[in-house]
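Supplementary notes for students who missed Thursday's class. We covered one full example, reproduced here. Read the sequence, then the structure, then the short commentary at the end.
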Amino acid sequence: MTWTEGNTQPQRDGTWMAAINIGDTGPNGEGAQGRLLWKKQIDGRKTADGVTTYSMRAKQARIMKVDTASGKMVPTDMLFFEAGDLKGNNNTNNGKGGTYYHSQVAVIEATATGMRYVTPLTDVGGTLTGLDGTHLGMQFSMYGTTNAMTPGLMLLGGSHTGGGAAAQARALTWDAATGKFADGGTFNIAPYDRHLYPNYLGNNPGNQGRNYSDMHFLANPYVGMNGNTDSYLMVFSTTGKDPSEMTDPTIKLTGFISVLPVVSNPKQVTPPGGGSSTEPPSGGGTTPPDDGTGSSDSGSALGGCSATNTSGGALTMFLIGLAAFIRRRR
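Structure (token representation):
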């Protein structure tokens, strides 16, 4: 488990990770502390250029891999860890939360006996320009094509003023061989209000908002049907103001489901002389053929589509037999 420790604003006791025995056997009641296997501080207070920040809002996401026997995704002992270096503001002028200066991401192998860094804490703020850490959503994802999948994170940033416009999904990839993180692109999904209405209508204390969002990385049950080649999807659930209702504060938030393909089947190419072959994985020594759109179906791209660092990216929102929104609550 991971958490931020402290009971102040900002929380000043750092971000932590621990392993706990949750099996059927073990001490209970006053002896339950004996179930703690280990506990370690991951990050804490820093001072640089006269600015003091605190590590806050610890998040983790389990890294998955494909089981060769079953072909299904199974969990590993490795985790993505993310926390923000935050300068608090609430205790000075009742300002909202403060300012995020860095977004620290690491890959950690955690077992019952302890933890070790596979990739140490790395500030990805410069890699993911414009990323806002406030109520940031995070989920494990794979990217590329099924013959060259790259693990990474999907980060979800929303609106501070109710929604009314597309939320941003940011893809971060991780190269296990080099330990490097890279920008996988920015993509539009349905609106997401991370603060305004949860604060005004959610009985949150003071000026605090709250994030009502979720993400799930899952196999596409429709792959192979009607020409669908998207093998894995990221499914987002968000709440936010519909653009047509932004000027009417009496209408509460709408619930949305957005579906974004992240892994596709490799494109089948026809070599000279007939027959067919599967396109080589990313970095396989040859350049995939251009499909006429200015991009190639490379395993390093998001869902086989070239990913760019723009607000639109290669696509916005896909609906695969799902409703565009769940319901409207008035």
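Commentary. The longest helix spans residues 196-201. The CA atoms of residues 177 and 254 lie 42 Å apart. If anything here is unclear, bring it to office hours.
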